Structure formats: C-alpha cells, structure tokens
Amino acid sequence: MKNKIKIISICLIALFIVSSLTMAAAAVDGREVMEKVDERDTGESRHALMGMDLIDASGDVRPRVLEVWSQKVDFERDLDNTIMVFHEPSSIKNTRFLQKENDGEDDDQWIYLPDLGRVRRISGGQGGDSFMGSDFTYDDMKSREIDDFEYELLKEEEYNGHQTYVVEALPKDPAEEQYAKTISWITKEHYIPVKVEMYDKDSKELYKEMRVESEIKKVDGIWTVFATVMEDLDSGHKTNLYVKQRNNNYLLEYNMDVNDRRFTQQFLKTGR
User: Fold this and answer.
1) Were both Cys, which of 82, 107, 164, 219 would link to 185 (CB 3.0–4.6 Å)?
2) pLDDT in tens, 14-43
3) InterPro entries attached here (predicted)?
C-alpha cells in the first residue's frame, strides 16, 4: 500500500475520520508513529454536518455551515474523494469544493462559486491561499506522501490529558511544501494528532497551530473528534470546526452509500 499522510487535512476534512485502531506496541521512532497514524481505519465513506466559525482577534464571529462527504476510491493506494457544500450564510450558500487525491502527485481541487456561475480549478500557485476566508489553506487540505518527509521523535509527554508522541516532520524538498516543518502531538492510545504546530517557510518561526478541542469518542466503532481549532498566532484570527447537530443528534456517519456522481464536476456545478 502507498503510504500517505493526512495530518493537516484531518483538521478540516477529517474531523470525523480518526482511527478505530489502537496500537499496543511501543513506537520505535518518528517515522513509525506516522505510519501508525496512516494505518488508521477511516471507513469506506464518511458524512458530516459541520460548523465553521471564523473568529477575529477581537472575538467577532462569522459562523458558517457546511456538509462534507468523503469516500475511499482506491484502498490499495489510499486515495479519497471529498466534496464540501456550504449551506450558510446566504452569501456563500451553494459554494461547493471538490478534492480528488492522486497517487504520487498533487491532489486535484476545484471550487464552484455561485456568484461566478462556473467551476474554477485551484492551481498549484494558489495552494497557500485561504480556503473560504478560514485559517486553512488549499494546501492544508491536501494529502502528503510519507516518504516526502524526514521524521524525528522529539519526546513523549502529556498533552491535554493524553499521553502523546511529539514528532517533527521536515520536508525533503522544502520548495514543494508551504511549511518549514510541522511538529505533531500524536496520542498513544488512538494515534490521533491532537495538536499540530506549523512553522513559517521564510522566518522558520511558529505561526499556525491546530488543536483538538473535544473529547475523542467512538462512533460506529471509530474514534471520533468532534471539534478542532486552527489559529494564526500572528494575527490572532482562528477557525473553529465542529460537528453540528440536526434534530438533537450529531449528523455524523460512516460507511454509508454515497453516489459516485456526487464527486463529479457536474455535481460541483449543479448540486445534483
């Protein structure tokens, strides 16, 4: 199987696709920790209703609501397709985003903006742009090949009630990545990243941080995170992501049937 690492994309797309797999053996090094993160069972498909709150430094909140479907399309190469549909506010309603993971090359990304009435492909040069005004970039949501990084197990420590491995990842080809490095706190129990630090490519200073801000519970046998935050430490702006309720129940499900047509440019443009 081709190993792909999706630490950053977990922040947005995969709040709800963390592992049902618990590893009993002690990790030997940073690479092994990340391989165990990659080995998690994420189900054949996932569906969730999510809130996305954009919060500025003064505390003002701009709430958004989106729905996400994700489906495994190639188990051998660990490739997913994902579609996001924004429902609220009305100014961005029916904005849709499609990502198709590729093996050995950048993922394909497209966005449909209702005001323009057309589908726009996200080019490589736009990877560092903000996704829908959030603290996530288009590159943040892409998958990465494990072999594209060097890993070091820095230490083991408790973080927010979890015993964790702290792993540094350095890109082998810095020109191809948007961060100088990342440092991840990975739970020993679930192999879930509960904190990720992102370091600026130019200054080499810490400037973004992702944190899990919910309990980790099982849904349909799969360990699930219900809320996370991505914060820009320079500006003080942050983005809260969380699973929302519908009819007093969290709208979150795994391994359901998803029509393949949902992951097409036709659906991206028309919503059907």
Assistant:
1) 164
2) 454 333 333 334 547 999 999 998 888 778
3) Sporulation_related (IPR052944), TP_0789-like (IPR033399)
